[in-house]
Amino acid sequence: MQIEAKLFSRDISAMLENILDRIGNINPQLFRELKGHLNTKNIFVVLVVSCVWQMIIWLFFQSQLPIAISNKSDFEEFNKYCTGSIEKGLISCLRNPDGSIIVNWQLWNLDVFAWLSIIACYTLLALGVYLLVNDLSTEQRRETLNFLRLTPQKPESIFLGKFIGVPILVSLGVVLTLPLHIYTGLGGGIAPIELLGFYAVVVTAICFYFSTALICGLVTSWLGGFQEWLTSGLVLGFLTSTQMFFNHASSIYSMNYLRFLNPFFQIPHLHLTSFFRLNNYSLIYPSSIWEDSHWLQINLDNNYLLVVGLVVVNYLVFSGINWISLKRIYSNPQGTMLSKRHSYGLMLYFVFFTIGFSDFTAEYFFRENISYLLFLDFLLLLYLMIATLPHRQTLADWARYRHLSEETRVKSNSLVWDLIWGEKSPATVAIAIISAIATTPLIISTFLYSSNSKEFINSIYAIGFAVSLAMLYTALAQLLLLMKSSQRIYWTFGVISGLIILPIALASTFFGSAREPAYFLWLSSITAPLLSLYPPEDSISITLVLSMLGIQLALTGFFTYLLQSRLQVIGQSNYNWLVSGKSHSLE
Fold it and tell me: Which helix (H) or strand (E) holds 185?
């Protein structure tokens, strides 16, 4: 037996070597990753772990089945997998003439299928993200990624190799669940086309989350080994929180968009599983997980393939943006993740997609849709700030370039054009344009659908605060990124985080709810739009609101002036050094 086991292990190893050699000819990076992760021991461990947890799930649901016994009692006569009527809030069990209980096998298979889907998706995404971030951040810290930059491999080849190779063992463990997954899915009455649609959602979700993980691994090495835990925790937290909070979300809220980022909501026939019953005392189920949901007035209820198509498109768009960012960071680590053109297009797409879930004509829900859209747009805006704000070296190069272009009077490189489209110019104007893209539909909706003057004014205040805060954070962050300190990223992150969190913490700690003494703090934080939309009973004076807006705009102007002055000094200094024939270090 030992000789046969050794021969089998040798045959497996030889087969793997043959496959890896062929892969190495196509993608050397993928060969490198697979060579380091795939070996007989690792494959055997993954096989055992996958089989064990599948067996645990199977045995658990087997234990939930009703048991036919001769000594009948009320307890054994009721079970959620029975097929009888409702008695005492439970489903009674019907029996065959031979005394065996009639089991609802379709429901049982659906429950197993759903839990297999949830565990496999969450494990694959969270653990895969952890492994990718850890791998990239480690290579960044060790500076081994610079060796890859010297090779003739294209960035796409390198990142595709890591994308597939680093989490290969986790992917293998999930693939091993497919036989049981397909078997229970078909047993639960799921059509093969719906299974294929769900697998398409999972594959595109992997593309999005794994490409995001690659970006995090490249740009967050300054966190010093904590980033893999942070990013994987954020992914798992997002998946579980959206699952909990949006199971029965209102169909008219824009927050429904978050369902498109969680594969849980695309599990076929999820609404028919036992833990989605609307009422424990009846057999009432929602018609679908997207009951009464609309996107651009298109009904998503009982239209699974349409939902899958929209989700897949959404994942592919964000994955494409991520791959653009990866290529830019890899080619120029000191550059920005996105160009201004890409940021405009991304915000346009995001606004179009999210506003499609809103129904401003629904009575009593106008303010809710405005507040949720502002929240979603603010999250994307924070990302675009990170992705488009250039750092000191880039800004200094741009300042020197502006002096040269002004002296040679190159009209195609006008300052306005450069601030809107230029790769190296400050991003304050670009963020202002992005804010306009995000808020213009909200302003139009406010004019068209606000029910009264008070609601209209409060909505305009909320939008005004959202724009002013965005511009204030952008101007200050851009100014901080111009610091000479090598720790400017830490300073920028700390100051902006403090401006977001500190006023809320102080107001909550010392003043509790939004009362008059705390209005100043609340209106100086990101809660200002929400406070404007939902003012307290004693209301907020117009004078205070306008004063706070004026203060924020004045601070934005002041920081912008400091930024402009500093750029002029740096640009003139570097220009003088350039014409004198000397070199000058900006760091």
Answer: helix 178-187
Digitized pLDDT (tens) for each residue of the chain, 587 residues in all:
555 555 555 655 666 666 665 665 677 788 888 888 888 888 899 999 999 999 999 999 988 888 765 555 444 577 788 877 777 667 777 887 776 788 888 889 999 999 999 999 999 999 999 999 988 888 877 777 777 777 777 878 888 888 888 899 999 999 999 999 999 999 999 999 999 999 999 999 999 999 999 998 888 776 667 788 888 999 999 999 888 887 765 566 778 888 889 999 899 988 888 766 544 444 555 556 777 777 888 888 778 888 899 999 999 999 999 999 998 888 887 888 898 999 999 999 999 988 888 877 776 678 888 888 999 999 999 899 988 988 888 888 887 766 555 444 444 457 788 888 888 888 889 999 999 999 999 999 888 888 788 888 888 999 999 999 999 999 999 998 888 877 788 888 888 888 888 888 877 776 655 555 677 778 888 888 888 888 876 567 788 888 889 999 999 999 999 988 888 887 676 555 445 554 444 44
- Could you write out the DSSP letters of every residue in 330-397? HH-TTS-SS-HHHHHHHHHHHHHHHHTT--TTSTT-HHHHHHHHHHHHHHHHHHHHHHH---HHHHHH
Q: Check if the beta carbon of residue 110 is closer than 8 Å to that of residue 192.
A: no
Indicate the helix (H) or strand (E) that contains 427. none
- Coil/strand/helix, residue 299: strand
In whole angstroms, what is the distance from residue 208 CA to residue 204 CA? 6
CA distance 283 to 285: 6
User: Is the CB of residue 587 less than 8 Å from the CB of residue 446?
Assistant: no
Judge whether 97 and 87 are in contact, CB under 8 Å: no
DSSP assignment of 22-47 equals HHHHH-HHHHHHHHHH--HHHHHHHH
What 3-state class would DSSP assign to 482? Answer: coil
Q: For the CA atoms of the chain, what is the radius of gyration?
A: 29
Place of tokens 């799930």: 57
Beta strands in 63-163, from DSSP E residues, in sequence order: 86-87, 90-91
Question: What residues form DSSP beta bridges with 87?
Answer: 90
Tokens read off for 367: 């303010």
531 within 8 A of 514, measured Cβ to Cβ: yes
| Torsion on CA atoms 505, 510, 516, 521, rounded to nearest 10 | -30
Q: How many residues does the chain have?
A: 587
Tell me whether strands 298-299 and 294-295 are parallel, antiparallel or unpaired: antiparallel
Alpha-carbon distance of 258 to 322, in angstroms, equals: 18
d(CA 428, CA 416): 12
Type of residue found at 466: A
- CA distances for 340 relative to 115, 156, 391, 415, angstroms: 42, 22, 15, 15
Whole-structure pTM value:
0.87
Q: What is the largest CA-CA distance in the chain?
A: 103
Chain centre distance of CA 137: 20
Q: 527: which 2 tokens?
A: 């809660």
- Helix (H) / strand (E) containing 455: helix 453-480
Q: How far apart are CA 368 and CA 133, in angstroms?
A: 36
CA–CA distance from 491 to each of 150, 278, 283, 426, 496 (Å)? 32, 49, 57, 18, 8
Pairwise CA distance, residues 548 & 506, whole Å:
17
